[in-house]
TrEMBL record:
Boundaries of every Acyl-CoA oxidase/dehydrogenase middle domain copy: 137-227
Protein name, as recorded: Acyl-CoA dehydrogenase
Lineage top rank: taxon: Bacteria
Protein species of origin: Dermacoccus nishinomiyaensis
Record key words, sorted: FAD, Flavoprotein, Oxidoreductase, Transit peptide
Domain Acyl-CoA dehydrogenase/oxidase N-terminal span(s) in chain numbering: 21-133
Length: 393
């Protein structure tokens, strides 16, 4: 087991360890060791070059049992939601892109197959995906339809016993390395989900480059041109947005914990730097303005983690609603990016170097604020829950 924070005073003030079970702390320690050994030493290069060995990382993460770890059966670990949350927390303390790899694999692609797939789809894909031998991606967002997925133009038509898919998906994590894509498409019978092997004729994935965020992550555009699939490629029961939105709630849950990992790592970096940096003859940490910043950020990390753990306990118990997860994502992403930016100010000019994490976390969190529902979408979800009035349409 390891402490919640590497900084002893931050760990003492936040005092999260006593709220975690031994298993949850063990998971955090396991992920921290993996990131220390295989991720952190390489992050400055990966971020600078916008290149990451994602398949190699997926294999290592699969060997640790982290891929789809909160799912039962089919080679999955069957861990608690809170243990999965702590894994996301520690992954994102390293980098949001690494947590995204795990989230898309486990909470989007694997969860979609596990929750909505046929027994044949589950047995074909889930054991290999859990082991990291197969990588998945999740095709929902389109170039013109992000927050409004109901308007998607990708469509699937019946042709005899087959399905034929045409369309484009955008901003797809793991897209160019995936062996299987879960693709959502309009049909004559509402929106349906399809399990699409990426070696199917007509399927093409092109990497999106020139990103200023999530540079240690694979992002792609998917094109489907007359992609012909057998009748059993479709999810058998689910229709409409219920299917994809259930998957987004799973991914959002991990982000609630993950965003606080990026915030915690930024704060730890700022604390260490302020203690060693001499300004006008004494440590930077000895000045009132710096202490005020550090105190305020510690408050927000504490509150964000308490909120994440509360949602985790709900999910492991009676259940957590999508609106409650929206509350967690909205708050924790908003506070995490503010913390990363404030920590950058404490580092001064050194803060713009990839030698230090806050500027990288701040850049990544620009994307985390947007994907799996923008902050504005989550505000409207909460507004609808509070007033009973939908402001979406």
């Amino acid at each position: 087991m390891s402490d919640f924070s590497r900084n002893p005073e931050l760990n003492r003030l936040v005092a999260i360890d006593g709220l975690l079970s031994d298993d949850e702390r063990d998971v955090q320690a396991l992920v921290r060791r993996f990131c220390d050994d295989h991720v952190r030493p390489n992050l400055p290069t990966w971020y600078d070059e916008a290149s990451v060995p994602a398949r190699e990382l997926a294999k290592g993460l699969g060997e640790l049992g982290l891929l789809g770890m909160h799912l039962d059966g089919y080679g999955c670990a069957g861990s608690s939601a809170t243990a999965y949350g702590m894994a996301c927390h520690e992954l994102e303390a390293a980098d949001s892109g690494i947590r995204s790899l795990v989230s898309v694999q486990g909470s989007l692609a694997m969860f979609a197959i596990w929750r909505w797939g046929s027994e044949e789809q589950k047995t074909e894909w889930l054991p290999r995906m859990a082991a990291g031998d197969a990588v998945g991606c999740f095709g929902l967002t389109e170039p013109d339809f992000g927050s409004d997925p109901a308007g998607m133009r990708t469509h699937a038509k019946r042709d005899g016993d087959d399905w034929v898919l045409n369309g484009t998906k955008m901003w797809i994590t793991n897209g160019t390395i995936a062996d299987v894509a879960v693709v959502w498409a309009q049909t004559d019978d509402k929106i349906r989900g399809f399990v699409v092997p990426t070696d199917t004729a007509g399927f093409e994935a092109r990497e999106i480059t020139k990103k200023m965020s999530l540079r240690a992550s694979v992002t792609a555009e998917l094109s489907l041109t007359d992609v012909r699939l057998p009748a059993d490629a479709v999810f058998p029961e689910v229709r409409g947005l219920k299917g994809p939105l259930s998957c987004l709630s799973e991914a959002r849950f991990g982000i609630v914990f993950g965003a606080m990992g990026a915030a915690r790592d930024s704060l730890e970096t700022a604390l260490d730097y302020a203690a060693s940096r001499q300004v006008f003859g004494k440590p930077l940490s000895g000045y009132q303005l710096t202490q005020g910043k550090l105190a305020d950020m510690t408050l927000e990390v504490s509150k964000g983690m308490l909120l994440a753990l509360h949602l985790g306990r709900l999910k492991d118990g009676a259940g957590v609603s999508p609106e409650q997860i929206s509350l967690g994502k909205l708050n924790n992403c908003r506070e995490a990016i503010a913390i990363a930016r404030e920590c950058r100010t404490i580092l001064g000019a050194n803060g713009i170097s990839t030698e230090y994490s806050p500027i990288r976390h701040a850049g990544n969190l620009e994307s985390v604020m947007t994907y799996e529902g923008t902050s504005e979408v989550h505000q409207l979800v909460l507004g609808n829950a509070l007033t009973g009035q939908s402001a979406f349409r």
